[in-house]
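Subject: sequence -> structure tokens, single chain

Hey, anyone have a minute? Need the predicted structure for the following. Not urgent.
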Amino acid sequence: MELEQIIYNLVLHGGNARAEAYEALDAAERGDFEEAEKHLEKADEEFYEGHKYQNMLTQGEQSEAPNFLVIHAQDQLMTALAEKNLIKRMIELYKRVNQLEKRQK
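Reply:
Had a minute. Here:
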């Protein structure tokens, strides 16, 4: 596979993972935790799809030296992972707040 295709897929799947994670957060803010879980599952799927392309780079399938675009694409995917993990924790907090609000009513 061409290096440019790998870079494109890293950015694509990293961006999709981030978007799904934020959709999950939006759903949790509305109290729709079932929808939030669906988006988190999609975020995981997108991340792991991107991770396949990351492995192509790290396992030496590309002989070219890493360049700015490779570094940027890797950063996009890893930032998506960090944000997804943080959003998962935030959703757990929303669940707790939601439970407490229900108790007070």
